[in-house]
Amino acid sequence: MPVLALETSCDETAAALYDGERGLLSHTLHSQIALHAQYGGVVPELASRDHIRRVNGLLREALAQASLRFSDLSGVAYTAGPGLIGALMVGASVAAGIALAHDLPLIAVHHMEGHLLAPMLEDPKPKFPFVALLVSGGHTLLVSVEGVGRYTLLGESLDDAVGEAFDKTAKMMGLPYPGGPHLARLAEGGAPGRFKFPRPMTDRPGLDFSFSGLKTAVLTALPAGASEQDKADIARGFEEAVTETLAIKCDRALQQTGHAALIVAGGVGANQRLRARLADLAERRGAGLFFPRPAFCTDNAAMIAYAGWARLAEARPASGKLFTTARWPLELLRPPMAAA
Ligand code: ATP
Ligand code: MG
Ligand code: FE
pLDDT tens for residues 49-69? Predict the structure, then answer.
């Protein structure tokens, strides 16, 4: 039976329905990018208010698209964290209301577990165990995944997340927010090799990352009155440095764990150069490589519906337990059976 999921952790309001037998039944999404663009970043209070305005319409549309009613559901999942607390509370409250009214189990989902399991929405799906590279606006994580809720952190960013580095670098070059996709587009016309930026922390062992220095290197390289071509060349150099750094660490993680597959998820997973670079690596290693479709790399409710379904399928979570949390380390998650 289908699980309804709501995602409101940041600046996307989304709803989706996932069924174990029939797969993803529907998903709807509204992005607040235009709302926050003039501020150059997400304004938390505006985000919460807009989630309230949109959430009911989006969840009704998801139900209508799947020709389902509340009485057809087997559970309601929502993103409980990490994220903006006021924004999270909107999805949590609506999900709790539906669960209470229809006597359904309420499933609190970790946003990064959602990102991590997003490749499960594709065909073919990856098989456990695998290495996951999670590259989003707020996280850069390398995780060994043995199953749902069986996560070992291999490495993480000690400062900026990759998406954040993309966004800050794009902002320095005068590109609109969120800058990642704009910077990637600019890099298309850039000359490779004109700017060579550092590959941070690749010259020593370990799987941690650091991206804040790269941003400074770009700022130093950016000439006053830079031409469009200068900017494109710098964007290309930045993208090369980031993708090579990520690829080097993925290679090490595959070697260290002995896992035969790599999955990449989170917004930066939509980056074409990163996808191509990791495809080379996987081919060289004879490893499987799995991505969500680009629309499921960035925030969406389909991944939350899948994660909620996966947890409900293995153990019925306690009904009516409502919580939200701004911070929630992924390693604290436990497999579904342990949670029962
Ligand atoms: P988190 O999941 O850590 O809470 P988030 O939900 O804000 O953060 P996502 O929605 O997963 O992050 O991803 C958004 C990030 O992905 C932004 O930083 C954006 O610039 C970046 N991004 C999206 N598309 C691309 C692309 N093609 N190239 C590079 N970066 C991209
Ligand atoms: Mg977003
Ligand atoms: Fe996200």
Answer: 999 999 999 999 999 999 999
ipTM over 0.90: yes
pLDDT < 50 positions in the chain: 339-340
Residue-wise pLDDT tens digits, 301-329: 999 999 999 999 877 665 557 889 999 99
Residues contacting ligand 1 via CB (< 6 Å)? 10, 83, 111, 115, 136-139, 163, 166-167, 178-181, 184, 266-268, 270-271, 298-299
Separation CA 100–CA 340 (nearest Å):
20
